[in-house]
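Form P-L/3: holo structure prediction, ligand flavin-adenine dinucleotide.
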Amino acid sequence: MLLQNWWYTTLLGPDAPIRPPLAADVKADVVVVGAGMAGLSAALRLADSGHDIVLIDRNICGGSTSGKSAGFLTPDSELELSQILRRFGVEGARHLWDVPVAGIELITSTVRKHGIECDLQRQDSLFLANDRSGIADVREEVAARKQLGYPVTEYTAAQVAKVIGSDGFHAGVRYSETYGIDALRYCQGVKGVLLDRGVRIFESTEAHAIDGHTVRTHGGSVTADQIVVCADALSPHFCRYAPEVGHAETYLTISAPLTDRDVKALFPGDPLQCWDSDLIYSYWRLTGDQRILLGGGSLLSTYVRNAVTSPRVADHIVGKFRKKFPALADIEFLQYWPGLIDSTRDLFPTIIRDPQTPWMQFVLGCVGLPWAAFCGDFAGRHALDTESQTDHIFYEYFRPDRRFLMPLWSERLLGKPIVFALNNAWAKYYQVDRRA
Ligand SMILES: Cc1cc2nc3c(=O)[nH]c(=O)nc-3n(C[C@H](O)[C@H](O)[C@H](O)COP(=O)(O)OP(=O)(O)OC[C@H]3O[C@@H](n4cnc5c(N)ncnc54)[C@H](O)[C@@H]3O)c2cc1C
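OUTPUT (holo model):
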């Protein structure tokens, strides 16, 4: 397998020209730093406001995490509904589940409105039990969806085998209104929409400091009334909130196109987007050209300090898949690539509007494209007209000083990866945090 991001390989070409870097000192009403899903969503919201918007990214639009992703658009990114329900109760779970649901709506409506070609696939989500403890996870998810009144279909092992070509799973939970996309093409498509609306976009432009209202980059600066930072892998020199964010690594692989027969062997019914109940779970879906996009990792490779690229992890992911689907053992996997997902200690995003610097917002640690889309759009809406917005509650849910199991200073004793892993596990499996 070749170590290369498939989306880059298939993007490169004359239809996606790179915007030149910033090479002057410019002024704007709003500058957005970071053009992943969050930053692009902020800019898209602002582009309709009639104000002068600048968007900068040190890579290309979508060139970091968003453009490496598997493009699953499901609310279930890293936190399941039952886990959010346990932590926040019914009212909180409704508020918070609405975040990724709204994010999916933002992304899919943008695709349709602007005719963005990004391989949008309507695919139901299917969460699969790998073993007995997985059956309990599936049942909890079914119960949570029923309690909140969300549609759901529960499968026994025998029923699972009819929708997915494997008898290796013990139960499943399925729900709809979920999609798959080529997220790099989506980001580049939104870039085109923004340019058409007069947003000034500078790629290859790294912000290295913010002084008051001015964002400084290596080739120039942007001075703006409002600053929205949606950047990943932040350096503490650039942003004092950087320590709030850690990361986890995940890998993706992509296969050669499947024959129609292979597709039927994998999905006897409609193609679905699937993931299993393992702690380091595997996930897979079909692209429009019938390739299997397969992701996962290993315990050792997930909480790493710096990115590692191990072909063994990719082989492990493919090997695990082949065991579950022996009929597809001959499918060739062509490329693999790892990526780091920024996250906070409890896997919820952090959105900061410091009362001392109300012209600046930071959108950090969005785990999942739908969460990033909502949070970027939220920051965009609140940048110019926060008074007329009705969802200030998310500044509360996503405030940086919410309750975590372990404080940041414990990293000095245990190291960041361990502190983040323990906090993540606590938030997922144990934390109860009812709002007053
Ligand atoms: C392999 C992989 C598979 C995944 N699969 C899925 C999936 O199927 N579904 C899902 O929902 N999520 C998935 N994710 C997670 C998802 O990609 C992220 O949660 C999401 O993209 C975060 O979006 P973002 O805009 O917050 O961050 P990013 O996409 O990382 O955007 C941040 C941007 O800021 C820019 N930047 C950083 N620093 C600076 C600076 N100083 N100056 C200027 N620009 C800067 C970066 O270049 C980048 O473009 C996956 C992630 C990976 C790695």
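COMMENT: The chain has a mean pLDDT of 94.
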